[in-house]
Design goal:
binds flavin-adenine dinucleotide, about 375 residues, 21 strands, 7-stranded antiparallel beta sheet, elongated, 7-stranded mixed beta sheet, Elongation Factor Tu (Ef-tu), domain 3, 2 domains, alpha+beta
Length: about 375
């Protein structure tokens, strides 16, 4: 049986950063991947241009039952380190908003760089990880095709989101088998479905995108919201889904910088205009018809009670989504392997020596904007440095 210093399960962002880091330290590495090629998620991420980091990456941008867990890894391999990695490979980048970095060309350039960095590893593609056994000196890793021996085992097999790209619960199963707890998994960074009774009124808005502020629980998110044929999408909805649980309302402010009631009152005196005309500068007609309802209302004749009603629909439209689009359309999986039993400094299991976990399989989920790939790279680096 072939022996390696480490076997890494999963040729995703975190697995390959782990492999690259360990190879630089002279370790022998095998990577097991059930897809025919590596980095499938990187290839589709950021609309094909891969939003690979965000300079703002810090614990405030991650959701976890253990909010401090990500701090050490993000410090050991920071967004600046990731940017340096990319620049060392002469990859051209651009910032969509300050600090949010994408590849100028396509994700393919970053994939090429990661494959170059890991060319000394032995890759086993089209090979499904089936489990492992502990031995006196390490592990025997079982796949459907072969068995490999290793000193360290790294579980980097990602979450359950986007099954179309080949995902599995193998990471969670392996963790459970070794006594690790799993924080319940749910789809996140995912659009919302609305009830058909609501969609009856909203279907005309399909395709309209507006800058909004969404409040869900104690979180406020300022981003663009997109109305779709099934409900709500766009960055605002995706981001809100990270903090949303079934049954919770979303409160949407369509004019977050304006107190709409005060604005209408200030215009009311001597006004000859209709209420809906006031909003022509802010919204498309279809949205005005939906949010105001009665197109013939004259501002001067509309009682304050009615103006308050209209204002509250614009400043605090409240809706309870029926659910989300599920793992099929989720960019990430929230929840995962409980970090309480994993070292935040090394990513090593506190239960089993030389067993490591990296990336999305852990209960760390970043907001939209490059935070998830940064987490994958940081945690992969840390494991690669310590195995
Ligand atoms: C459409 C989309 C767009 C995204 N865009 C961005 C973005 O722009 N920026 C950002 O930060 N994040 C983005 N993300 C999230 C980001 O891609 C992931 O969080 C990140 O890739 C996770 O890396 P990982 O290495 O932990 O897991 P993965 O990249 O999922 O890698 C896990 C690997 O393990 C393999 N595997 C699983 N089970 C087995 C098994 N049993 N045997 C063998 N191999 C197995 C998988 O095939 C996969 O290659 C996006 C995600 C999606 C779906």
């Amino acid at each position: 049986m072939k022996h390696f210093d480490a076997v890494i399960i999963g040729a995703g962002a975190s697995g390959l950063m782990c492999a690259a880091t360990a190879l630089r330290r002279g370790k022998s590495i095998a990577v097991i991947e059930h897809n025919p090629k590596a980095l499938q998620k990187v290839s589709v991420s950021g609309g094909g241009k891969c939003n690979f980091t965000n300079m703002a990456a810090s614990k405030e941008h991650y959701l976890s039952s253990n909010p401090d867990f990500c701090i050490s890894a993000l410090k050991q391999f920071s967004p600046r380190d990731m940017l340096q990695f990319v620049q060392n490979h002469r990859i051209k980048t651009y910032q969509k908003t300050p600090g949010r970095f994408f590849c100028s060309e396509t994700s393919a350039v970053l994939i090429k760089a990661l494959l170059q960095e890991t060319s000394a590893a032995e890759f086993f593609y089209n090979t499904v990880f089936k489990g492992f056994e502990q031995t006196k000196n390490g592990f025997i890793v079982k796949t459907e095709k072969n068995s490999l021996e290793c000193t360290s085992l790294v579980i980097s097999c990602g979450g359950l989101s986007y099954p179309g790209l080949g995902v599995s619960s193998a990471g969670y199963d392996a963790a459970k088998k070794t006594g690790h707890r799993i924080i319940p998994c749910r789809p996140a960074l995912v659009p919302f479905n609305l009830d058909s009774s609501v969609m009856k009124h909203l279907k005309y808005l399909q395709g309209i995108s507006l800058p909004v502020e969404i409040k869900t629980g104690s979180r406020r998110i300022k981003e663009d919201l997109l109305f779709t044929h099934f409900g709500l999408s766009g960055p605002a909805a995706l981001q809100a889904s990270l903090y949303w649980n079934k049954g919770m309302p979303l409160q949407i402010n369509f004019l977050p910088e304006t107190d709409v009631f005060a604005h209408l009152k200030s215009l009311k005196q001597n006004s000859k205009q209709k209420v809906n005309t006031v909003f022509k500068a802010f919204f498309p007609d279809k949205f005005i018809n939906f949010i105001i309802g009665e197109p013939s209302l004259f501002l001067a004749e509309t009682p304050d009670k009615k103006l308050r009603e209209i204002s509250s629909r614009i400043n605090a439209w409240t809706i309870v989504p029926a659910g989300t689009r599920g793992f099929r359309q989720a960019e990430v999986t929230a929840g995962g392997i409980d970090t309480a039993d994993v070292s935040s400094r090394t990513m090593e299991s506190k239960k089993i020596k030389n067993l490591y976990f990296t990336g999305e399989v852990l209960d760390i989920t970043g907001e939209l904007g490059g935070f998830n790939l940064q987490w994958a790279f940081s945690s992969g680096y840390v494991a690669g440095k310590n195995l």
